[in-house]
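Q: A reviewer asked whether we had any structural model of the full assembly, not just the individual parts. We don't, so I'm hoping you can provide one. Inputs are below.
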Amino acid sequence: MIQVIADSLALGSVYVLFSLGLSLSWSVLGLLNLAHGAQFMLGAYFAFLVGEHFHVSLLIVLPLVVVAVALTSVIADLLVYRRLRIRAGTPAESELAMLVASIGLAAVAETIVQNATSGNSEFIPSSVYGVRTLSTGGSVLHITNIQVLMTIVTIALTIAFAAVVKWTRFGRAMRAAAVDPATCELLGVNANRLFSVTMAISGGMAGLAGVLLGIYLSNVSFQMGDPLITKAFAVIVIGGVGSIAGAAIGGYVLALAETLVVIYGPASYQDAISFALIIIVLLVRPTGLFAQRRWQRSLWDTSRRTRSCSSRRLCT
Amino acid sequence: MTGDSIRPVRRSQYKRAVSAAAILAAGSMAVAACSSSSPASSGSTSGASSTGSANVASSTTLPSTITVTSIQDLTGAVGPVGISTQDGMNLAVKAINSSHMLGNTQIQITYKDTQTTQSQAVAEASAAASTNVDAIFGPVLSTEAVAVAPIVESAKIPTIFTQAGGPGVVTPGGYVFRVTAPQSDYQPNLVKYLAAHNVKTVTMLYDSTVPTTAGIAQTTLPPLFKSAGISIKGSYGWAEGTSDFSSYATKVASENPDAVGVEGITTEPSPVIIALRNAGYKGLIFGGTSFQAFTLQAAGQQAKGVIWATDFDQNSTSPTTAAFVKAYEAAYKGAPLDYAAEGYDAVYLLAYGLKDTTGTFSRAALQAGLAKAAKAGFTGALGHNVFVNQDLVEPGYIQTYTGSAVETISGS
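A: Here is a predicted structure for the entire assembly that you could use as a starting point for your response.
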């Protein structure tokens, strides 16, 4: 059972990181970013490229890749999403246009990597980033150092992200924009900058999940991000759109459920678990297990704006 | 400007934006799909030749160009398999055309990409069936082949498949031929090898969404194991798109069988092998045709000692096999996979079928010619090719991975 928990923690960590990013862009920006899987794949691919040519430490590769993928998100925002938002007449039109554009951007990214790799999977040798098995307790538990790192990084990042959202000015701006973006703009929030920074964070999380999973599996393929979109939907539905705790718990719950199905049940039903959980949660609690009421999500008020806008970073 | 006047302007701007985004998305998908028509060049590069029983001129007047549509999985999950097959086919076309094996007749292949989707394979087959193409080379994936086979049979177009090992593809007496022996042909030798090396228990891991791999794991191997006195501890199928096999590996490691069979496609084996070794499993791992040097290199030393059965031995000293390997390495700067050898021999089967065509040239005449050529057999890249009911039969070879290269440890 302890091995099951260890496996679930590693897998769940990937789900959490991936889903947090997707949930962030969806709840704050209204963008269902279907290019998120491609960004995840780019993170893994960048890790492969760096390991192939430079042989640097994992501690250097992680932030490098996160920044690189975050930059791709910002570029996508500047070149595509922002222009669509400007031209759209209503928020609904904007969301639709950006959704369609995200599909195209995903196809472009995957095609570039597919051509670069000739459609083959690329190998990240375990020696490049020092991946090794940490067998403990005799033969009771087999876990690699990368699995431990995945779990620690995810938990730490989730806590840090929750703190940013709850206690920082930027976090309040994000929460306010999630509730009423139009009013936020009127109150001085620079919407374009908020969008770009949020996209960067979202993309960075996807990239981080990608590099960790790519190193864990020692394998990178141009299609590796596609199956995770479905998992992310399950996690977000379980946890509730915009809920950080929900995404974290949902990710680990989904991973544990899938692992238990493989260990104790018909293994081929592993993916069906994702859909079954979505349906059950939608029937029981459509907003998700940890969704908050709309009026609780915004702590942005005039008095706070007056106090916090002194540096005028997010204010016009 | 009033609010009302802003809306119509912005609505048309919105329409342009959505149209532009949709065009961008569609264009991107078209770029992703773009690897379709690319006629094989009929250059004069000399290549390996094959020998066969039909070394006589055709008794019918062949067209100056034999047009063939090759429906291959050139992109997508099995893209590497399709590309390797294409490479073998192109090499054969060059050899046949440059040596004037068919006199003044040249073979010209036009490639269509299925993108590893059944619907696209069906669409391409239907499109080819509505043209005057003389023959078709079918896709490698079983799920596509079983959908394409009825179309080409109905349209009476001579069609040659490689790989596509699922049931229901080849109908004896029909228009479909297959130049890949079903894995059930050479699995018995693999099971014998396992039994000879004291394997008493096995666990199977397989891709449950592919008929070939599921069929081998669920239908072909179990009775062979039973006959050899090997018991199956467990049999677990994974779904398409699975990338993390740690939970499967944990389960297998807890069972600790003497050997684990891994039946997957293209690059699936390595992540499974890595997961098994990371979970502490130290026993023998065996597999099928997805075990190749390029699919196992990701696992590196963790794949050392894995074994598999295959229909192609690139280390064979057979003159035709050696000549094929030499020509392939010269043309593509790398060792050929079995998919390339099968593609090569598929084109040569077509050539021998053309030579055996009699009467007025037609698809029906070509089908009869192919049946005659298959019945006679020929020696090609795969070795001596023997067909039964238009399907290649092959006892196969057992190969192993040294951690960096492939070695043949048992052969026919």
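A: Points you may want to mention in the reply: Chain B touches chain A through 54 residues (CB under 8 Å). Chain B has two domains: 51-181+316-397, 184-310.
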